[in-house]
Amino acid sequence: MSHDTVKDGLVVSMEYKLTVDGEVLDSSDEAGPLQFLAGYANIIPGLENEMMGMKIGDSKEVTVQPADGYGEFEDDAFMDVPRTEFPEDMELEEGMELHVADDDGNHQAAYVAEFDDKTVKLDFNHPLAGAVLEFYVKVVDLREPTEEELDHGHVHEEGGHHH
């Protein structure tokens, strides 16, 4: 099996830079190349689809629309929660991330939109919902996944550290 192009079932190492509205939000400069298992939805679909068939050393710029990125911004994805449901000693601030369990016990991220003494308004939109994502990506390595990685559907970093 050839490892010269990105395809499902290969582990791809890529350098990347994410720009939204002209501002660089994330890049691999600090943490080093990101590894992902192609074909397993480890990264947003709009980026993964565009990378299929790239070779080691190839780079490209990819523009991802919200629907293929973090979703559209939903005006009704807000919830008012009584302040009393939060621990009294918890210091709330606008924009802070909370993890909220729904009735089924699924945890989802929410962000504090605004709050006063009585009510906290939570925003369940992803911070990049509705954003057009501009990626610069460069494929630096391709390899076969280990059986464990295939089994779990994602890359196991050496040394067990996570991004």
Distance linking N and C termini: 29 Å
Count of discrete domains:
2
Q: What integer is the average pLDDT? A: 92
What is the correct CATH architecture of the largest domain? Roll
Q: How many β-strands, per DSSP?
A: 9
Percent strand equals 35-45%
Low-confidence stretches: none
Notable characteristics:
163 residues, Chitinase A, domain 3, Thrombin, subunit H, 2 domains, 5-stranded antiparallel beta sheet, 4-stranded antiparallel beta sheet, 2 helices, 8% helix
Please explain how this structure is put together.
This protein is mainly beta. The protein folds into two domains: 11-70 and 129-160, Roll (Chitinase A, domain 3), CATH 3.10.50; 78-123, Thrombin, subunit H (Beta Barrel), CATH 2.40.10.330. The protein is built from two helices and nine strands. A hairpin with a 5-residue loop joins strand 6 and strand 7 (107-115). The two termini are 29 Å apart. The mean pLDDT is 92.
Topology at a glance:
Layout: E1 11-20, E2 23-27, E3 34-37, H1 45-51, E4 59-64, E5 78-82, E6 97-101, E7 107-115, E8 119-123, E9 133-143, H2 147-152
Antiparallel strand pairs: 1-2, 1-3, 1-9, 4-9, 5-8, 6-7, 7-8
Give a summary of the structure in a few sentences.
The protein has 2 helices and 9 strands, in the order βββαββββββα.
